[in-house]
Amino acid sequence: MSIFADPIDRIVAGNRIFAQKTAEKDPKAFEELTKGQWPEVLWIGCADSRVPETTVCDCQPGDIFVHRNIANCVHADDISAASVVEYAVSHLKVKKVVVCGHTKCGGANAALSDADLGTTLNTWLHPVRELRRKHKAELDKLPHDDARAIRVAELNVAQSIDVLKQHPAVKKAVADRGLSLHGMIYDIGAGQLRLLEESGGKRSNGLWTPPH
């Protein structure tokens, strides 16, 4: 349990510890970060507090450009995601785009039903609920809601990648310089990433199979 009663006190104190440890390990670390950023990966992930991409990938500040939202959705009409993608792909020239879902995802689980979550969340999760309806026969064969939620999370990652492939900046970068897109699921219980899809691979039932 934290010794800090106030969560703001906790994060401010944590920041001071981070700054001190980082400076002790590499005195020029922060000075280098002021010179600019050259991330090779754009990570589109869930806002879930248990999936901090830099931490779970053992990366450092400057390594990953990030966009996170509820259930790691990429909607064709979402200007926030689209602007992040355009900046990362066209200006930062990232080499890889990752869409990462995860187990125990509240959004994927909520998409298993049509329970009222409030106007904004109902609208946001509508495409994920449509995936559930589209794949109802497959999902009904799974043994329990945990398995169904994981499958919905996988399908949602695949759908988000399909939307990204239609983004003009992504299409141009794929053609001009070999940008690749990758789908992953993070297993919260194991702390491990699982690859679902990779451009150039062959997808079967939403899972990625290496090209022969």
Automatic annotation (TrEMBL):
Q: Which UniProt keywords apply?
A: Lyase, Metal-binding, Zinc
Q: Which GO terms describe its cellular component?
A: cytoplasm
Q: Which cofactors is this protein said to need?
A: Zn(2+)
A molecular function (GO) held by this record is: zinc ion binding
Which reactions does this protein catalyse?
hydrogencarbonate + H(+) = CO2 + H2O
In the Enzyme Commission scheme, what number(s) does this protein have? 4.2.1.1
Q: Gene3D superfamilies from the entry?
A: Carbonic anhydrase
Q: Which residues bind Zn(2+)?
A: C46, D48, H102, C105
The superkingdom of the source organism is: Eukaryota
InterPro entries on file: Carbonic_anhydrase, Carbonic_anhydrase_CS, Carbonic_anhydrase_sf
GO annotation (BP), single: cellular response to oxidative stress
Concerning SMART domains, the annotation shows:
Pro_CA
What this protein is reported to do is described as:
Reversible hydration of carbon dioxide.
- Family assignment? Belongs to the beta-class carbonic anhydrase family.
The protein's name in its UniProt record: Carbonic anhydrase
